[in-house]
Specification:
Shape: elongated
GO molecular function, one term: O-acyltransferase activity
Strand order of the largest sheet: 47-49-52-51-50-53-54-48
Protein name: Acyltransferase
Helix content: 10-25%
Number of strands: 54
InterPro entries: AB_hydrolase_fold, LACT/PDAT_acylTrfase
CATH class of the largest domain: Alpha Beta
Largest sheet: 8 strands, mixed
Number of helices: 18
Radius of gyration: 40 Å
Pfam families: LCAT
Keywords: Acyltransferase, Transferase
CATH topology of the largest domain: Rossmann fold
Distance between the termini: 113 Å
Strand content: 35-45%
């Protein structure tokens, strides 16, 4: 080595480079919020500057600098596509003024190294690389990336917190690098070879990468990324062999339970199966097993955690020996053969707690060392944090790992304290592992927890003596004992549930295996056949909303069921939380089978039309159901052709009937005031006209929409301004939809007017000055106009209102092109004197109409209050 200049290049793993933005550190931040990371790290196109190695790597760097003259690092933006780093890494290697380069790469850093070495394998500068030393590199991916993308992962998982689970889940969806660490097809194939199905998610098994990606990941992935851009070049380079000229040394952590399979039960609660590994990367991914390659070396480190590898003393010594070319000798800590007597596979216990709960761990002195630590004294907290523990949070499921080979042995703990943050069925099990294999599984009977109930799992050295104490307000409510359950969960016989539906308007189509219904329907659980254990709880999912059946039935109506297709799934959970596979039925439920009665009023005619509801129509077509055929019965048929009607200035009554698929008759009855309809079309109707029109149509709880050209916004209030400015008017109710298209030849624009006239005013005359506009909004001059006031007098209870009609002259003002109507207060008092009651403050409502003398047509109306 003396005559060769050696340069050592450290490459960190994912999240292992400190990132800055405009000179300010943005990763990592102690207790960083989702908002912080979303604003600084997403989208991935937002530029950041890799600043330095995370402190995790400082011990590694110092150890190497103390022994070797040239030590440097390649830091990078770990968010982006790993392909983006390889030219930068090539440049870094080229810049090293040495004869040989030895790369020491942790985790994803090993992958980036391989991509670069394969892409530039013929480059003279790359040929300087003689050794690649990897620490826990996930060559075949890791379930940790699945967990992060689906459920989130806290970083780090102990003590401090840079980012919590929910924030990591949201933010990491933006990072191509996280998707590139998904388990590869090779990973999944190795599981299939030992009869393991890698995933059960969304009620489906997945054992191929493409199927899994399309069925689980694709929807959110495609919002930010291109599949070809992220995976094609990446997998091409990753799957190539590194040049034979490069020594490959893999340092692999073992003896830590590491997720190899992720599934969800029927209730969407995640559960996992563990294998050997470093707690993050399983052995099957980190170990390439290139036994046919002469310069390939694998080293297995007992109890090495993934994130702890860069500062574990035995590993640092091993790395220095590899660099120096020293001969390796197996020992208690590190060995190079999986059949070695030194291999300490995981032995201990794993407790699974499935429920929306917070878990605390208590040591043998009764102190809470994890979870809800009950002290604010900093020295005491520091002391409590010296005790090691292993906890895996995956969605609403928590795994507590007790390892006989280190300080997390079950004998070092007094128990688990379980506090609920929601109500739900809770299951707790304890699995015993010996030499990496499950040898025993015990479980408590499932119980219902809520925020008022606390559960204490009291651990004993003789685990069969452990118990579960349920407390409320400190008082023991119940004590449960551990029971033996099957090691192979696949051998457990599950409960089986049967349901049926009852309803007056309900039909079952045998050939199609679907229900069709409306109105009130009752779901009955008709039978539950027990499996190996007693049934505990039956769940019904209606369009993914869960209902728990307490008394064997559930009433269904429009508040629960969607209009149209409803997927109803059901299953039963037994007393040890073994869950029946979902069964599913389809119920097409109709809030109505007909759409609203539609009216369309135009200048010369109007339409009355009832159509099938669009959803019902589609379902009827697919399943051969009877369509509705409305029957229109006009009492006066003059001008009626089908459901098209020509105005005849009458109150026209119409009744519409139909019979639906269930044999039930429905009918609608309307009175159409054709005179008012015509006035609205011509733009001469007042607010009171519209109100009267709606009342005769028998529409309730109506909503208005006025369409006004060149006006932005919703105009939904019935008033004179909206009525006169709109070019179309829409009136909707629960049963009907009315559209009126105006065809206004002339319009009136008031310059001065009053909508409130006081009888006792000192004013002698009320002047109404206005201009007349044509359809093109041009002023119309010198028309012969008159006006008509219709006064409505309230004659008191049980008497019909009296109407008094009086005409007033309209004067044309040639100087301004305006028109003037003068209402003399004296004349008004004389006209109404016989009807005036001093105790009334408001005499009544008058309607003013501006009328063309030429054709006697009203061209504008407005309502006026006559008051004291």
């Amino acid at each position: 080595m003396a005559d060769r200049r050696i340069g050592i290049l450290i490459i960190p793993g994912t999240m292992g480079s400190v990132l800055k933005q405009e000179g300010k550190k943005v990763w990592p931040i102690n207790y960083g919020s989702y908002e912080h990371y979303a604003n600084t790290l997403t989208p991935v196109s937002k530029e950041v500057e890799p600043a330095r190695l995370l402190i995790t790597y400082q011990r590694l760097k110092l150890a190497l600098q103390h022994n070797f003259p040239t030590v440097t690092e390649f830091i990078y933006d770990w968010r982006v596509n790993n392909i983006d780093h390889i030219s930068l890494l090539k440049g870094k290697i080229s810049s090293m003024d040495v004869d040989e380069v030895y790369i020491v790469a942790h985790s994803m850093g090993g992958i980036i190294s391989k991509l670069c070495l394969n892409e530039y394998k013929d480059d003279p500068e790359i040929k300087k690389v003689k050794k690649l030393i990897t620490l826990g590199t996930p060559w075949k991916g890791s379930m940790e990336s699945v967990r992060t993308l689906l459920y989130g992962s806290r970083v780090p998982d102990k003590y401090l917190k840079f980012i919590d689970k929910e924030a990591a889940k949201k933010v990491c969806k933006h990072f191509p690098s996280v998707y590139q660490l998904l388990p590869t097809n090779d990973f999944l194939s190795r599981l299939k070879a030992i009869d393991c199905v890698p995933y059960f998610l969304n009620d489906r098994y997945f054992d191929e990468f493409d199927d899994f990606f399309q069925g689980v990941m694709h929807e959110e992935f495609s919002e930010n990324h291109s599949f070809d851009g992220v995976f094609n070049d990446y997998y091409k380079l990753l799957n190539e062999d590194i040049s034979d000229d490069i020594e490959l040394h893999e340092i692999i952590g073992v003896g830590k339970p590491t997720i190899k399979i992720i599934c969800e039960n029927t209730r969407k609660e995640p559960y996992v199966y563990y294998d050997e590994g470093d707690g993050t990367v399983p052995l099957l991914s980190a170990y390439s097993n290139l036994s046919e390659r002469e310069n390939y070396f694998a080293y297995f480190v007992n109890g090495a955690s993934h994130n702890g590898m860069p500062y574990k003393g035995e590993i640092l010594t091993l790395i220095k020996d590899i660099i120096r070319g020293n001969e390796f000798h197996q020992n208690d800590s590190i060995f190079n053969d999986l059949d070695s007597a030194y291999y300490k596979k995981f032995s201990g216990y794993i407790s699974k707690i499935a429920c929306p709960v917070d878990i605390s761990i208590r040591d043998n002195d009764g102190n809470i060392i994890y979870g809800n630590i009950e002290t604010i004294d900093s020295d005491e907290i520091r002391d409590l944090m010296q005790t090691d523990y292993e906890v895996d949070d995956i969605g609403s499921t928590t795994y507590v790992i007790f390892n006989d080979n280190d300080e997390t042995s079950i004998n070092n703990f007094n128990g688990l304290v379980i506090d609920a943050y929601d109500k739900g069925l809770t299951s707790i099990s304890l699995e015993k592992y010996e030499d990496g294999q499950i040898t025993e599984r015990k479980a408590f009977k499932a119980f219902e927890i809520d925020v008022d109930l606390q559960a204490e799992f009291l651990l004993k050295e003789e685990t069969e003596q452990s118990s579960l104490v349920l407390k409320k307000d400190g008082e023991i409510q119940k004590t449960l004992e551990l029971d033996d359950v099957a090691i192979d969960e696949g051998q457990v016989k599950l409960p089986s549930t049967s349901i049926d539906f009852l309803g007056e308007h309900l039909k079952y189509l045998d050939e199609k295996e679907v229900y069709i219904g409306k109105d009130s329907i009752t779901l009955h659980v008709t039978d539950i056949v027990a499996g190996d254990f007693e049934p505990k709880q039956t769940h019904i999912l209606i369009n993914d909303v869960e209902y728990i059946i307490e008394d064997g039935s559930l009433n269904l109506d429009a508040n629960i069921l969607a209009h149209g297709k409803n997927e109803i799934e059901y299953f039963t959970i037994d007393e040890y939380d073994y869950t029946e596979k979902k069964k599913k039925v389809i119920l097409y439920y109709f809030h109505n089978v007909a759409s609203k009665v539609e009216f369309l009023f135009k200048d010369q005619f109007y339409l009355v039309h009832l159509t099938e509801d669009a959803v019902y129509s589609r379902v009827a077509s697919v399943y051969g159901l009877q369509g509705i055929k409305p029957d229109y019965n006009f009492k006066n048929t003059e001008g009626v052709a089908g459901y098209q009607v020509v105005y005849h200035g009458i109150d026209r009554e119409v009744e519409i009937k139909y019979v639906d698929f269930f044999g039930e008759e429905a009918s609608f009855h309307f009175i159409i005031d054709e005179q008012i309809a015509k006035k609205i079309v011509k733009g001469s109707a007042a607010v009171s006209d519209v109100e009267k029109f709606v009342e005769k149509l028998n529409l309730e709880d109506v909503k208005y929409q006025f369409r006004i050209k060149q006006k932005v916004g919703n105009h939904k209030v019935l008033n004179d301004i909206h009525l006169n400015k709109c070019h179309a008017l829409e009136i909707s109710s629960e049963t009907s939809f009315v559209q009126i298209i105006k065809n206004v030849e002339l319009d009136v624009s008031f310059e001065t007017s009053s909508e409130h006239i006081s009888i006792n005013s000192d004013i002698e005359n009320y002047d109404f000055i206005f201009k007349v506009l044509d359809i093109d909004q041009q002023y119309v001059l010198d028309l012969e106009l008159t006006s008509r006031f219709t006064f409505t007098i309230d004659e008191g209870p049980q008497k019909e209102n009296r109407e008094i009609v009086e005409n007033f002259d309209v004067e044309y003002l040639p100087g301004s092109g305006s028109y003037k109507l003068v209402l003399a207060l004296k004349n008004l008092k004389e006209l109404l004197s016989g009807y005036w009651k001093p105790e009334n403050k408001i005499l009544g409502i008058a309607k003013l109409e501006i009328i063309s003398v030429k054709n006697s047509a009203s061209i504008r109306s407005m309502n006026i209050k006559i008051a004291q």
